[in-house]
Design goal:
Blueprint lengths: L16 H8 L2 H20 L4 E4 L9 H7 L6 H15 L4 E6 L7 E6 L1
Antiparallel strand pairs: 1-3, 2-3
Helix pairs in contact: 2-4, 3-4
Length: 115
């Protein structure tokens, strides 16, 4: 019988924590959020504006679930991981990123991206 906890790559049968976290992300939501933010950034670059505010029209900005998780009103580790992943994606490219309350709804988030 194989040892499930053996660190040898040829006999490692159990997924590591890094891979487990990656596998639980909903990549389509993350991809959709990133591309929506990228589109807003490109449009504002073309317009000569040094920031973009994404207030609605994305999965994360249209859902109070993400607002509640970001503001620690409720817990959902997967959704918090998705938010942090998107935030880090842009920070790693040198953008300033703030996740703030959408003042129109007061129960959803908006992304404020600056460069």
């Amino acid at each position: 019988m194989a040892n499930l906890y053996n660190n040898s790559s040829s006999t490692n049968l159990f997924v590591n924590a890094t891979q487990a976290r990656k596998d639980t992300r909903n990549n389509s939501i993350i991809h959709s959020e990133v591309t929506a933010i990228e589109s807003a950034v490109i449009a504002n670059i073309d317009a000569g504006v040094l920031f973009a505010n994404i207030i609605s029209s994305t999965t994360m900005t249209n859902s109070n679930v993400y607002y509640n998780v970001w503001n620690s009103i409720s817990t959902d580790p997967t959704k918090l991981d998705q938010l942090n992943y998107v935030k880090k994606y842009f920070e790693d490219r040198g953008y300033g990123v703030s996740v703030v309350t959408n003042t129109s709804s007061n129960n959803t988030i908006s992304w404020n991206i600056s460069w």
